[in-house]
Amino acid sequence: MPTSTRSAATAGALDAWVLLFARVAIAPLFLYSGIGKVMAFATTAGRLPGGADGFGAVLAAGAIAVELGGGTALLLGLFARPAAAVLIPFTIAATLMFHNFWAAPEAQVVMQTINFLKNLGLLGALALIAFYGPGVHAVQAAIKPGSKGAPELS
User: Fold this and answer.
1) Angle formed by the axes of helices 109-132 and 80-98, to 10°?
2) Mean pLDDT, 10 residues at a time, the chain of 154 residues
3) Do residues 126 and 84 make contact, with C-beta atoms less than 8 angstroms apart?
4) Residue 133 vs residues 19, 21, 65, 120: alpha-carbon distances, Å
5) What was the pLDDT predicted at 146?
6) Contact of 31 with 67, CB cutoff 8 Å
7) Phi, psi (deg, nearest 5) at residue 104
8) pTM of this prediction?
9) 3-state secondary structure labels for all residues of the chain
């Protein structure tokens, strides 16, 4: 059975920095995407079921709220667990709807495959945050000092 050469204190400090890095590394993707949807709302809504003048507008507004809200929550480490839990099915749906490489025209297969696989990686990071919480380097931890992520706020 392998044993760790890290002490418990070293492991805890490293875990906190890894969780911070994971949150800060993936948050900009959701924030950038949400801002892009705001800037091109009609185009975004038009690509969704129901179109720009119908249900597509509701779906686009919901996507903006999820991406901007979830991205901000991850970045700050405030309600990061529920944000990650919401972003997981959102990312699965977006991946299946917009990065279905198996049905893409041949010229787009490589790019759609890369985006599909990138989203799988995002899902892994989101699952870790949903499970472990934001870590101690988070606004949530500052609200309740010594809480290691204040799970009761999650």
Assistant:
1) 160
2) 56 86 96 97 92 91 97 96 98 94 92 95 96 92 64 46
3) yes
4) 8, 13, 21, 19
5) 55
6) yes
7) -80, 155
8) 0.84
9) CCCCCCCHHHHHHHHHHHHHHHHHHHHHHHHHHHHHHHHCHHHHHHCCCCCCCCHHHHHHHHHHHHHHHHHHHHHHCCCHHHHHHHHHHHHHHHHHHHCCHHHCCHHHHHHHHHHHHHHHHHHHHHHHHHHHCCCCCCHHHHHCCCCCCCHHHC
CB 135 within 8 Å of CB 20: yes
**CA trace torsion 71, 76, 77, 78 (10° rounding):** -90
Calpha distance 141→149 (Å, rounded): 5
Which pair of structure tokens corresponds to residue 124?
């892994």
Kindly state the tokens that stand for 141.
């931890």
| CA–CA gap between residue 137 and residue 98 (Å, rounded) | 34
The residue written with tokens 């988070």 in the block is 138
